[in-house]
Amino acid sequence: MQPLTIHYEGYWQCRQATDPDPSNDPRGASGYTFALGYENDLDQIIRLQRDEIPDCDFRDAPPPSYPPEHATKQFGVFVTGVTLGGKPFVRAAQALREGKIRWMPQGHPMSGPKFELRNTITYFPVSDGIFMPIVPFDFQVESSDQAIILRRDDALDPDDPEKKIWEIADYKVYARRCPVNWFDNSDEAMTAVGVSLDGTNSSSAFFQKRKEWLQLQLVEEDDVVRREAIKNRLYNINFFSSNADGCRLETRLGACAVWDFALKGCNISVKGEDKLGGRITNDSDWGVRFWMGAFDGDLMRGYMRGTLTVPFEKS
Amino acid sequence: MPKSSTTTRKIGTRKKLVQALRFASELEHMLSCEYLFASFSARKSLADFDPGGDEGRKRLILDRARPWLSQINMIARQEMEHLGIVTNLLAAVGEGPWFEHPSFPIPKEAALVGAPLCLERFGESSVKRFVWYERPEYLTPSFPAPPCGGCSSAHELLHHPVRDALGISSIQELYEEISTAFTSLPPAEVFQGSTDLQVGAANFGYRVEMLTVTNQSEAVAAIQQILEQGEGIGDQPLHSDSHFQRFTNILAELQTSTSEIPDFSLALPVVANPALKPHPAGLPVSVITDPSAVQVMRFFNRVYHTMLVLLKAYFANYSSTGTPEPRPQAALFYAAFFPLMTMMVRPLGEILARMPAGPEYPGQNAGASFEVEGPVESEYEPAWFNSRLSELAATARELHSVVPHRLRSDMQVLFENITSTQLHFQKLWTQGS
Predict the structure, then answer these.
(1) Is B133 helix (H, G, I), strand (E, B) or coil?
(2) Min CA distance, B300 vs chain A (Å)?
(3) ipTM for the whole complex
(4) Whole-prediction pTM value?
């Protein structure tokens, strides 16, 4: 048995209000994220694929929409490689080429995963970084033709899977599901979205280009409702890129949290494992390790990179 | 800091200084409540509009108003920051926090801000009043300070506490006299508090600029910050980030929007000065009679009161040098700010703005009254806090079936959050992190 590691990365979306709004505020009034007039309410759900997002809730980025080095030049989290025992595993990599990562429980989009922060209610202490378990957690990787599907969930409290986060008195019960590390200025996160610490690709320049593009959209847009929405985005970028707010829009581009935990859930679904060149065994837990960051508050999307590791026996 | 225009100090003793600081506390507190009330009353989604009609117009209104609401909430937060700074000034002179305030409304002669203090929904009337509140003394708007909910200058209180006691007639004068008192009274007479007892900026994030006060120059700097952020008074008058500048901009944009967009009604039809009972001084209020709204109002006031008790316990017992941080201090900070303020008081205020006021007010909604019965207790026993938080959780659960159907998910989240807060608070106080 060797660990089969599936590597993935890409853009995710999370439409959630930010401080000083309540975390479940449906529209966002005072933080740096908000719903535009023609968009749906903020539902806090983390979405990893474009087909999970209604068109009206997907904001365009100015061209080029993705950094030059970006592998897929499209929104979403995709498989980028597979290793077996730490070495490239070509057969599985080819089988999962352009495979998709999903976190949405099948058939229940409104109960999708959320950053369970609740304005600091569900964790303590605030000493180094942020405690944010992602709840519920249901991890799925699927090949582009869906001939291969690997899926497993993880309960917040494996000893009491039905318990909700707000019912748990001791945060240490779910501490394993919280970030293990936090960075304020992650080179890796910024580089992934084409931003650097300074120079022409700095976070300031990043939003300056966004403003310029939005200003052009404004003069080219005839629809009154759309024009107002663009003005709102411009106001937001101006205010939250300023010292009045500590430049939160810009600083979030460099912020990054790392998660690393085992998937212990009983809901396991494996299909097409033979196409990977072997079979998944029960010798050990599945494990995920990933970082999420580089959050663009105007588009309400960020970037992630990580791995899923499963026990595997090559045939 | 401009020198006081008076030639005679009006605050000549430590006792009068404490009196003035307490009045400043009340004023900052009540301004914050007013601004929040206006924000609570704003429509936030299509569901807040009457069904039918032009959906595009509704979406336009929501987007047009969002920057205004963002600024009003920010200003409300800065008033809380000012209250925190005044609390530090009180600590510097050896006095505890003062989180009491009289019931709304306050007629303009007693309010020191040139206009009555009252709870009114967002609109041209309330924003004009906000401009009056925050104006520098040398500027007088061409429009009169609007009356509110029937409370006009014809209503007089029996006495005007600050003017009668101190001879002060404006908030700018109040702070200038406080500043003069700190620099002119003998330091040994004034600075009787421990420097350890003040909450500084390091305790907060998100640009909350809490200043500690340990000497005369720091006292002057703290007051300077309040006046700069509010009226824009300082080295550069009419500072572009001042509350005055922001409210005048909002007013101008609101007036333009009202003429551009048909039926520009951003606010829900919330009554002015909602209350659970008649005003103690007989001033006009809207006594809410809808039974469901009354229950939720009582709950709001209970949550609000709990938050004030937590804040008082935090500020009164704070130690900046405790290492490790005392467990009760950490527990109080944990519960008072984000959970109670952001996740409970605000959502409840918004729920109330969407509930009917009663048959006496056809087509109108209730609102948060910010009524506090009696002094804010000084509590420091974990049993009191645990009992209160448990009670609040139980009440939230009961109210789930009382609020209108579309608000039940909000009440469910409230119940979850209070429950979680109580669980973590209890553990944090007794066992630490």
Answers:
(1) helix
(2) 16
(3) 0.90
(4) 0.93
